[in-house]
Automatic annotation (TrEMBL):
<feature type="domain" description="DUF403">
    <location>
        <begin position="24"/>
        <end position="300"/>
    </location>
</feature>
<dbReference type="Pfam" id="PF04168">
    <property type="entry name" value="Alpha-E"/>
</dbReference>
<dbReference type="InterPro" id="IPR007296">
    <property type="entry name" value="DUF403"/>
</dbReference>
<protein>
    <recommendedName>
        <fullName>DUF403 domain-containing protein</fullName>
    </recommendedName>
</protein>
<dbReference type="InterPro" id="IPR051680">
    <property type="entry name" value="ATP-dep_Glu-Cys_Ligase-2"/>
</dbReference>
């Protein structure tokens, strides 16, 4: 996201486009930690973005998220191939060379943010690609892959929910101009890295119905929830996972959610309640979060059986 914003700042956006883009950026940022706070982080200035990248005191910063990932990876280093570990080590060393400063000039903020965002965007996919080609295709690696897809689905689902105001009312054109809606939806697609996919699939300007259908229902778009569900299903149906405790309820939950998405008509939803998308989208997000819990439970059940050698109930959740 920071990399996209930095690129957009260098483009010749007029004042109207900037005013419409920035609310979309901010809606996708997590709220600041704190009891009952509704204040969100900001990326309006170079210093805001620099802080979101490198401030270790911020629980939502990129460096904090990477530190948690490095800690988790270290705890299972023996399970990782040397080649994949080298990529993580390079990423850690890259961020380790940059210490957070409280009051740097804007030029330094922009330079460091751009450098680190480019490194993260390059090395994180590289880790998964190298691991895919060098690690055993065992249950542990499959769980890592499943985690990648379910987290991607959650990111997409949460992003759609976060910008519901840009989608609500856009179907009628009464609450905002069509041009403004198009700009905001285009900004949203660009931040998710799906604008090119949208243009290839629909070949029309960004519109609420098509955006919702692509993010939730299109099985070919890597960022879509349906695509991620299909990938999780395929991994759980691998021979070594198929008979594992908890796999059956996970597959049942995925099947149920897929059927729900296939039957859902966003066109009818927009016509029936164009200004009330909040509840339906929140319900879909909650179902995605629930699926995350079910799959995690499935894996933990399987690991418990491996560790103890004793049978275990197939999942703690009643999924029908």
């Amino acid at each position: 996201m920071l990399q996209v914003v930095q690129s957009l700042e260098a483009e010749e956006l007029n004042s109207e486009e900037r005013k419409l883009y920035r609310p979309i950026w901010i809606r996708l940022l997590p709220r600041l930690e704190g009891k009952n706070t509704k204040t969100r982080r900001n990326i309006r200035t170079q210093r805001d973005r620099y802080s979101l990248m490198l401030n270790r005191q911020d629980e939502g910063s990129v460096i904090t998220a990477l530190q948690r990932a490095f800690s988790n990876a270290t705890s299972i280093q023996d399970c990782l191939s040397p080649e994949s570990w080298n990529v993580l080590d390079e990423l850690q060393r890259t961020f380790g060379r940059h210490r957070y400063k409280s009051d740097p000039p804007d030029t330094e903020c922009a330079r460091r943010t751009r450098l680190l965002s480019e490194s993260a965007m390059s090395l994180i996919p590289q880790f998964f690609a190298v691991a895919q080609n060098t690690m055993l295709s065992d249950d542990g690696w499959r769980f890592c892959q499943i985690g990648l897809y379910i987290e991607r689905a959650l990111t997409s689902a949460n992003a759609v929910q976060s910008i519901f105001e840009a989608l609500s009312g856009a179907g009628t054109g009464e609450s905002r101009g069509e041009h403004a809606t198009e700009i905001q939806l285009s900004a949203f697609l660009r931040l998710l890295g799906t604008r090119d996919a949208y243009r290839r699939v629909y070949q029309v300007r960004a519109q609420p119905q098509q955006v919702l259908e692509m993010i939730w229902q299109n099985p070919e778009v890597p960022r879509s929830v349906m695509h991620c569900l299909n990938k999780c299903r395929d991994l759980l149906e691998e021979p070594t996972m198929r008979n594992a405790p908890g796999t059956k309820p996970s597959l049942a939950a995925i099947k149920s959610f897929r059927l729900e998405l296939e039957k859902l008509s966003f066109r009818k939803l927009l016509v029936a309640q164009p200004d009330a998308l909040t509840d339906p989208l929140q319900e879909l997000l909650s179902t995605t979060e629930y699926l995350h819990f079910v799959i995690s439970d499935s894996f933990l059940s399987h690991q418990a059986e491996i560790s103890t050698g004793s049978p275990r109930a197939a999942g703690r959740l009643n999924v029908s």
